[in-house]
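Researcher: Quick test of sequence recovery. Tokens follow.
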């Protein structure tokens, strides 16, 4: 099955989609002048060439002549709730107010207390004890999760809330970063090879002495929008039959990409935001992890690539139970989205009004002085390198002002969007540094 995220991301900008993608949306004209380029953009190198061909030149922006004006609305001044403002000296006072405002902007829905957790299956694989679990939220189908921990582990272990990526692939969720048996869906073998050096990174960190929980995110896998649940005229003639068939998976992911703007508009109309729903459901998974008898709830970390990176930004910034955060492949500035890159990102990214109050990296910075690691790829076509470095500087300034410079680290790696073996080594070392006794 073709699963090229980068082909997808350049085309879905017309609907405001993507953090990752799998295939070309049907019925849309590509957002580039030279239509003949599209057929050649099927590989990592081709997509990077596409990105290079669309760099900002002078007054050119992804919203035309409106780009400079839109950027000017927030440029030349610090956001009102930035800790970098001179009037802020007390970290706790700043964080309390800024988190309250962020919570308001997210419009986080109330989704009840700790849900009962059902253990559906238990077994071992490659030295890990694995539990397939599920829980029912007040809406939608049950959420599926996977628990991984070292076989025969004793006592309470530190925990990791591991976030899967977007990947332009809503059919899959937990399977993107786990492996639970010798048989693996070919699409997931390809996915892990492309983005994770062929590794199931949740398994790898569990082997180091952690209880790891991976849960399907809102609109992915067990939480995905089922075709049977939407009006027939919106299904594009598709159905939910034979779902594991690669052709059907690709067709579903194409459909789900086109449906994403509908979901975003509906959530806004319901008085909430996509990041707010993400946070509510991820926080429920965190509650479940912390409530386990085999977990030391005072030593919890979270992390993930891409769509998992943005979930890390919000969870790491908002919930102080996260003692260590690792954001991979999702760090830039609001300016980068305005001028260059909003078309490469999903509706799951945006929080209306917030850019007036906090720069994007300052969301993660709300956790200062708690430790945070940011891992970037120099050739990541989802961002511009100058704005990745500007975001890094902002976080450095926040942590420095909080007298916690040694609790923040940012590293840059060669290559495109990924969380490869070398990056995993640094990430796992960071978790070990702050969470292992």
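Model:
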């Amino acid at each position: 099955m073709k699963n090229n995220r980068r082909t997808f991301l350049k085309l879905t900008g017309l609907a405001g989609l993507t953090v990752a993608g799998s295939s070309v949306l049907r019925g849309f004209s590509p957002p580039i002048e030279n239509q003949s380029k599209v057929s050649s953009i099927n590989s990592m190198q081709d997509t990077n060439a596409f990105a290079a061909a669309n760099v900002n030149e002078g007054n050119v922006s992804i919203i035309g002549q409106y780009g400079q004006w839109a950027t000017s609305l927030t440029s030349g001044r610090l956001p009102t709730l930035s800790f970098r403002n001179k009037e802020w000296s007390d970290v706790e006072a700043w964080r309390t107010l800024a988190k309250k405002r962020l919570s308001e902007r997210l419009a986080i829905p109330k989704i009840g207390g700790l849900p009962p957790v059902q253990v559906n299956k238990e077994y071992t694989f490659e030295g890990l004890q694995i539990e397939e679990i599920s829980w029912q939220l007040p809406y939608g189908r049950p959420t599926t999760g996977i628990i991984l921990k070292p076989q025969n582990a004793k006592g309470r272990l530190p925990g990791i809330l591991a976030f899967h990526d977007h990947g332009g692939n809503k059919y899959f969720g937990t399977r993107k970063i786990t492996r639970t048996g010798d048989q693996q869906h070919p699409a997931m073998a390809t996915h892990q090879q492309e983005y994770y050096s062929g590794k199931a990174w949740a398994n790898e960190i569990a082997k180091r002495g952690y209880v790891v929980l991976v849960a399907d995110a809102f609109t992915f896998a067990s939480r995905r929008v089922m075709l049977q649940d939407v009006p027939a005229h919106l299904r594009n003639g598709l159905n939910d039959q034979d779902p594991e068939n690669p052709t059907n998976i690709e067709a579903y992911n194409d459909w789900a990409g086109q449906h994403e703007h509908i979901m975003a508009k509906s959530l806004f109309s319901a008085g909430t935001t996509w990041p707010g729903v993400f946070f509510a459901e991820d926080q429920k998974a965190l509650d479940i992890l912390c409530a386990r008898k085999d977990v030391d709830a005072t030593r919890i970390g979270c992390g993930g690539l891409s769509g998992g990176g943005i979930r890390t930004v919000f969870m790491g910034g908002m919930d102080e139970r996260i003692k260590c955060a690792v954001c991979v492949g999702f760090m830039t500035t609001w300016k980068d989205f305005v001028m260059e890159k909003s078309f490469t990102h999903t509706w799951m990214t945006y929080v209306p009004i917030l850019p007036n109050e906090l720069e994007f990296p300052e969301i993660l910075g709300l956790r200062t002085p708690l430790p945070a690691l940011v891992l970037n790829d120099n050739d990541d076509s989802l961002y511009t390198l100058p704005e990745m470095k500007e975001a890094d500087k902002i976080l450095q300034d926040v942590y420095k002002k909080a007298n916690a410079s040694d609790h923040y680290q940012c590293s840059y790696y060669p290559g495109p969007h990924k969380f490869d073996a070398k990056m995993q080594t640094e990430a796992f070392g960071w978790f070990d540094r702050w969470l292992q006794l």
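Residues 246-269 form the longest helix (24 residues).
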